[in-house]
Structures are given as structure tokens and as C-alpha cells.
């Protein structure tokens, strides 16, 4: 399977600068400021309640128990129990709100990426593997879930806890606090190094996951399975997938083990800190230093242990954020992709389209191909409203590209193309979608029922409208003969139907859409003669009273066209009626003779 992944170059609006990227991530949470403020209040309240417990413990050990004050002891014990209850309640509410906000942000990201891709030109998808696109939406955004839903809240919660705990420790004894925090800068530096290391590995891992997703999408589709089985490549594909999976295993292990020993050292040191506190307090007493009460030592150790959990979690959160920056960067690359085909700020809307199409000195080049020959050059053709134009020529002459310019699947790079006298680039997308229908050689059907596939063109179509469209497309009788009729599921890409049946379903779908301009892109070229006859009858019904541009492979299907254009090397070599072109005895006549020789073999 091919492994040529697209090489992404961030656009000028995209920055890999971390501070700017972090600010951009924070803007994702802007619509949820109010909920996040509530989370902040809950975090603050929870931290204060947690910090209060060691002070209650100090009073219990230094006052209530030594002095035998049973009432005070009961109140202090009740306070500690209440503190635990409030901490639990605040934690549940905090998790509920933060998870809701995180999932809404995930939803916004998925929708934004999907919407961006829907606006990309056809050229983008011709050079991008489907699995790569799916991986960005599923794996990359999915990989950010922990960061978006919990890490941000964990960061605020742990930071608040650390600050509150340090303040409380200073209030108890500043000398013990200094001892406890001596190694903190080193810990921060270590976690930063670990985060950078994991970020690099994560970038490699996500690329490998995208490659695997592309392999699965291509090789485990119906077409991929057919190709693999008939070519005897099933074992080879399995080995190839195994190799890619093996690379992913290595990256996953490296990602999980990156910095583990360093983080383990931090955990060991922080776990040993209570012993250091006891040693320091004992040494101070023996050397004649100020007396430290048992309650103060126990309360301080309790705070220090309370500092241990959020501090380690805070360092780990920093590592997770560094890792997630790699995922955000991949998503932002998609969000920053330039959209080639856009709508004008004040586009022209046409309520009624007659269907006149004009190509005025049209030129077209693919992106980045400024030095080579244009795909189309100097095309001047007029198709009157309700008229028919056939476009013929050798493979690579630019026939399909010419047809795709009308619905703006591509944009002209020179000259202009008009619909009813209006440049198609000035029309709004709704007018174009209503006005131009395309039936291509490769019919795409969704894995859904026949009725759902037809209603994709007209969601509010009645059952009677479906039947009438199917009858016009010469496919109703076949659908009616199926056990489930119009509720029959067509299978992936319509593989439960033959090529001719799929084409007629596509034609029925376009009839429902009822566009005044129709583009037929070699709609019968892959069919046998008998099936072609049935499909041609459906096409004739579809083409009636519409402006029709037919990209033809078999010349027998376009002899009745009002005008025939012969393309060669992206230029119009000949044009005229069938009889006129035969009289010229040029390229068209040669194509007709070739077609006649091949016809008996079909």
C-alpha cells in the first residue's frame, strides 16, 4: 500500500510557538467562562477545606486531648468529618462541570475540523489519504480528551492546593517550610525536560497512528478486500500492517517510559520528606532551638503530605500538557488550512436559473503548477440554456476537469466561467448546489437504505416522489422486486447493487434534486452495452429540458448532442455537430473510427 503521507506546512496564521499555541488553546474555553468560574470557586473552597484539617488536628493534639476538653474534642472531630464530606461533594460537582465543559470543547473542535474539511476543494482530497483525515478527527482529538476534560481543571485544582498548602505551612513554621521546598525548582526542571521528550514522541506516534488508520481504511474496505484477495496480497497486507503496528508498539512504550525514572526519583524524594521534617524538628530541639510542639509537627507533616499529592500531580499535568501540545498542533494545522474555494462577502443569489453556461478563455492549473502546461487553456465554449454539449478527447485531455469547473469543485485560474451571465465565483453556494447536478462514473452510495440514499438529494421528498424519480431512472421495478423494497440497505459504497443499478440510483437521486444544469462525467463508460442502454434511457429522461454537459468515452452516446468539443492537450482542437466534425475528417473522425473498431469487443 502507498505510504506517501501529505507533508503539512503550517500556514502563516499557524504558529508552533508554545506561548501563542497555549493562548489559542485557552480561547477554546472562552465560551464557557461562567462554568469555569464556578469550577474555580469549587476548587478554591475545596482547597481551603482541605488545608483547614491539619489545623484542626493540631488543636486536637495540642489542646483538646492534653487538657481533656471533651466538648472541644467533639467539635474538632466533627469539623474533620465535615471537611471530608465537603471535599467529596465539591469534588463531584467540580468533576461534573469540568467534564461537561471539556466534552463541549471536544465537540466544538470536532465540528470545526469537520466543517473546515467540508469547505476544502476537491484537490485537497485527491492528494490526502482518507485514513489521515479520519485519524486527525478520531485519534488526535480523541487523544486530547484527557487534557481537555480533566487536565485543565486538575491544573487549577492542584495549583490552588499547592499555594494554599504552602501558605498554611508558612503559618505553622517557616523554617520547616524552607526545608520542604528546597528541591522544588529541580523537580520543575525535570518535569519540563520529560514533557519536551514526550511531546516529540507523541508527534511521531500520532503520525504512525494516522498511517495505520489509512492502511485499515484502504485495505479493509470492500474494494480493498476484493483487490487484496484477487491479487493474492492478503498475507502481504497483513505483514505490512503488522510492521506498522510493531512500530506503534515501540512508540507507545517509549512514550509511556519517557522520564519514568526521573519522575520516580521525584516521588521517592517527596515521599521521604516527612522523615526529613522529623529529623529537622528533632535536631532543632537537641541544639537548643525554638521548641516545636507535637501538634505542630504532626499538622506540618500532614500538610506536607497533602502537598505531595497535588505537587506530583501538578508536575505530571505539566508533562501531559506538553504531550497534548503536539496533538493540538496537528489539529490546528487542519483548522488553518487555506480554503481555496470561498463565497464572496456579498454573493449573487439566483432564484431561477435558466442554465446558460459560458466558458470565456478559461484556463486551469493545479495548485503549485505554475511552471508546467495548464490542464485547460483558452477554452471558449457556449452552452445555451437547455442545450447539450459533449466533450471528448484522449485520456488526460482535461475533460473531467472542464466539467468540474461548473459546480466549482475547482476554480478557474484564468478567464471566467458564467452561469446565466454571472461568474460562478460570484454566485452563492446555495445557488450553485441547486443549479448544477453531477453524475460521475464512480457512483457513491452511503451504507444506508435505498430511500435514505435518494433522500440525500432532497430530505423532504415523499415516498411518491422517490418512486417517480426511480421510474424515470429505470430502476423502480428492480427496487420493488427486493424483499425490503426501498428500505433495502445498499451496503458499503452500494456493493449490493451492480454498476448499472448504482448508476441508475445516482440518476434517480439527481432527478430528485432537479437541477437545470447537468454534468455527466463518463456515466456509462464502465458498463456493458446492454446495461448502458438501460442507463442511457435514464440519462435521456434526466437530460430532458436541461443544459447538459456530457464527458463522453463512448462516442455512440453523444452523437445527438447540439455541440461536440474535442479537447487535446487542454485546448479545443475541434468543435461542431457530429456531422460537421465527421466532415472535417480530423481528430473527432479518428476517434469515431477507433470507437467503431472497439465496439464489437464490448
TrEMBL record:
Domain ABC transporter: 357-594
Location of the protein in the cell: Cell inner membrane
GO cellular component terms listed in the entry, alphabetical order: plasma membrane
SMART domains: AAA
Claim: Transmembrane is one of the keywords in the record: yes
Regions that span the bilayer: 36-57, 72-97, 146-168, 174-191, 264-285
InterPro entries reported for this sequence: AAA+_ATPase, ABC1_TM_dom, ABC1_TM_sf, ABC_transporter-like_ATP-bd, ABC_transporter-like_CS, P-loop_NTPase, Type_1_exporter
Pfam family, one: ABC_membrane
PANTHER family assigned to the protein according to its UniProt record, in alphabetical order: ABC TRANSPORTER B FAMILY MEMBER 28, ATP-DEPENDENT PERMEASE MDL1, MITOCHONDRIAL
Protein's recorded name: Multidrug ABC transporter ATPase
